[in-house]
Design brief:
single chain, 176 residues, mainly alpha, Arc Repressor Mutant, subunit A, 2 domains, two-stranded antiparallel ribbon, 6 helices, 2 strands
Length: 176
């Protein structure tokens, strides 16, 4: 028999109420079991020991226990998958921002010495053959990790508004 997962959201107070109902009786193994029994009773209009229906129950206890166990297993698997996806996302984001030692060394060596000789990231990329996006990522990392790499913000020119900046408005150099 194939099974399907059904998921829904409830308010925290309702969830607490259901948990208390499960803890208050031996009739239910879990909240999932409680929900399944309630739905089954509603559909068959039979409530044993409660209000409604004409008494009696057509529910197979073994089948319900199996379903409850499967739901609990699925819930656990979903929780594990959520944690795995979160870890994978964190790893991917940190890998994207990491620049290899070879690239940072190449960028550092290509930096001119002295403020008067400062150049843009694109100029360094052209000199080294390193992709500009990697150069633009490596330069701030080098400036942060090494006191020798410096950044110079130049004035806006050629119609750029005062509120706009471009990568070419930043010059880089290393101290002599």
């Amino acid at each position: 028999m194939a099974t399907e997962t059904i998921a829904f959201r409830v308010e925290e107070e309702r969830k607490k109420e259901w948990r208390n109902a499960v803890e208050g009786t031996d009739e239910y193994d879990s909240v999932t079991h409680l929900i399944k029994k309630a739905v089954s009773r509603e559909l068959s209009d039979s409530y044993v020991g409660g209000s409604g229906g004409d008494g009696g129950s057509n529910v197979d206890a073994e089948a319900l226990t199996e379903i409850v166990d499967r739901l609990d297993s699925v819930e656990s698997e979903i929780s594990n998958m959520d944690e795995t996806v979160s870890k994978a996302t964190d790893a991917m984001l940190s890998a994207e921002s990491a620049i290899s030692e070879e690239i940072t060394s190449g960028v550092f060596e290509a930096l001119p010495r002295g403020r008067d000789n400062a150049v843009t990231a694109n100029e360094i990329a052209n000199r080294t053959g390193i992709p500009p996006v990697k150069v633009r990522t490596a330069l701030p990392q080098l400036a942060e990790s090494s006191g020798a790499v410096k950044r110079v913000d130049i004035e806006m020119v050629d119609g750029w508004g005062e509120d706009r900046r471009a990568e070419e408005d930043i010059l880089w150099y290393r101290e002599a």
